[in-house]
Structure formats: C-alpha cells, structure tokens
Write a structure and sequence with these properties.
single chain; about 300 residues; alpha+beta; Ribosomal Protein S5, domain 2; Alpha-Beta Plaits; 4-stranded antiparallel sheet; 9 helices; binds cytidine-5'-monophosphate
C-alpha cells in the first residue's frame, strides 16, 4: 500500500447569514460569508485495489454509505474509471449538528485527497460541481479559500483575503439543531419572503474582525433562539465576555466568538465555565489547508 494522503478538514463559521427566499425546490437562496477556523477533523486516505472503506474515530456518524466522505470518494473514483479503491480514516474533532460544517469539510477533503491519489485527473471546476452535489457548504471548503462571500444556496462564492488570525471560542450546548429543520422553522414564519432593503457592502467590511463584528447578523438566530431559548441564554453569556464578534454558527447550535487577545479568550473560558456547554478554544484561520500532493 502507498503512503496515505493526509488532510486537515477545518470547521467554518458564518460571519453573517441572510435567508432571502425559498426556491420551488425547497432549498433557500441565501447570502452569507464563510470563514475557516483552526479546529479541524483529520482525514487520511490510502490507495487500495478496489472498493471504499471508512473507519471513524469519534462519534457515530450513521450509515457509512451516506457519509459525505464516502460519497465524495466514490464520485472521484467513478469519474476516473475506478482504477483503484480507497481506505479512509477520519478522526472527528468538529462537533456534529452544531453549524460548524464538519461533514461538509470532510467531504471536500475527501474530494481533494482521492483526486490527489488519481494524479489530480479531475479538473478543479468539475471537483467544484461534485462539491455542490454533496452539499451547499461543500464548495466553500473545496475552494481553497479561508474566507468567502457566498450566495445562491451558498455554492456561489467570491473569495476574499481573510484578516490575520485571532483567538476564537466555540461554545457547544447539549442541544443539536438539524439544518433542514431550522429552514422549515424559517418557512413557517415566512409564508411570503420577507421584504429586504438594499445593501451596499464595502470590501473593507471583511478586512478586520472589528468591521466584521459590525456587520448584520444571522437570520437563524431569532428562529433557533425562539425554539431553544437556552441558546439565546448561551449567546448572551458569550456576548457578555467582550468578544469583537459573536454569532450563532450556521443554523446552530454552536455559538462562536472572536477575541482581540488570547488572554481575553482565556478569561472568557474561565467566566463561562463548563456548566451547560462545552468550550473549544481555537483560532480563526487566514489560509486554507494546503492542497495534497499528487501521488501514484
Ligand atoms: O445542501 P445541504 O445538503 O447541506 O443542505 C441540507 C438541507 O438544508 C437541505 O436538504 C435543505 O433542506 C436545507 N438547505 C436549504 N437551503 C440552503 C441550504 C440548505 O433549504 N441554501
């Protein structure tokens, strides 16, 4: 067996998230900005004669055939004539159903890793198509950007330079939120798409965490906090620790905050304690994970 290709699959936060309309397909048109965190799963992919296997270290992720890592690997293997198979090992560190994009990031990492083993035979634009078929957030993780403005279902992106890394804190409550369910709650409250005023964003608005902190919020906050009032409580407790930026992650349930200094983040950890939530100190990330090198 050859050496495995190893990739870090980083978590994301949504700097802001607006839901604009429901498509007839049931999906929603959104506008958002994604940013990577240092927190990451680890994927190792090794070439074998045939088939696809996945071994997960961490929480139970459900049926292997539905795992985005397995589906991503099969897409690349099918596109390159199934000349070989892959044995994959995934170490899960990103909490699931928290809005941190862990599964999507794992899927994007698998696309790149298996493509590297195939000598990068699948061109970048086709890999992005595969990413969009796997899920709305997967193209961001596959794009090689650390920060991007995104629209459509989240798969159309404008990549922008990320501000210098700052200390971050992720608060993981015991409750989990399913994304389809959170969108269904939005549908219940918005039988007609809400009227939105015009918006004019300066490129500078995404250049520092201070200016990012002054941007609009996440539409899921009011909806998800309405269903789970304890999450509003968590958000308010994190906001009271003085971060430059604080938001619900995607459709929840995690709350993320960014601090100017490590000491401020560490003080926040002390103040919040571990009662009622798990705390994960991390950093924001200014560069995407390096691409794997092609191997034979
Ligand atoms: O695209 P992804 O598979 O990650 O989406 C999971 C679910 O979230 C979809 O089945 C859909 O119900 C909802 N969704 C949506 N609009 C988006 C993204 C996701 O309604 N833009």
């Amino acid at each position: 067996m050859s050496e495995p290709v190893r990739l870090a699959a980083h978590a994301k936060v949504n700097l802001f998230l607006r839901i604009l309309a429901r498509e007839s397909s049931g999906y929603h048109q959104i506008e958002t900005a994604f940013a990577l965190l240092e927190l990451a799963d680890e994927l190792a992919v090794q070439r074998i004669d045939s088939g696809v296997t996945l071994d997960v270290e961490g929480p139970d992720l459900g049926p292997v055939d539905e795992n985005l890592v397995v589906r991503a690997a099969r897409m690349v293997l099918d596109a390159t004539g199934n000349r070989f198979g892959v044995s994959m090992k995934l170490v899960k560190r990103i909490p699931v159903r928290a809005g941190l994009g862990g599964g999507s990031s794992d899927g994007a990492a698998a696309l790149h890793a298996v493509n590297a083993l195939a000598g990068n035979a699948v061109p970048r634009h086709e890999l992005l198509h595969f990413a969009a078929r796997l899920g709305s957030d997967v193209p961001f993780f596959a794009s090689g950007a650390a920060l991007a403005l995104a629209w459509g279902r989240g798969e159309r992106q404008f990549r922008v330079p990320a501000p210098a890394p700052l200390p971050a804190l992720i608060a993981i409550p015991p409750v989990q939120v399913s994304t389809p369910e959170a969108y269904a709650w939005w549908d219940e409250l918005n039988r007609e798409p809400p009227a939105r005023g015009p918006v004019s964003l300066d490129a500078d608005a995404l250049s520092t965490w201070g200016s990012i902190g002054r941007l609009g919020g996440n539409d899921f906050e009011a909806i998800v906090f309405g269903k789970h009032p304890e999450l509003r409580g968590l958000y308010e407790r994190v906001a009271a620790t003085g971060p430059v930026w604080v938001r619900l992650c995607g459709s929840g349930s995690a709350v993320a905050a960014v601090y100017k200094k490590e000491g401020e983040r560490d003080d926040a950890v002390q103040r919040l304690g571990t009662r009622g939530q798990r705390l994960i100190p991390t950093m924001t990330r200014a560069v995407a994970a390096p691409a794997p090198t092609p191997r034979d």
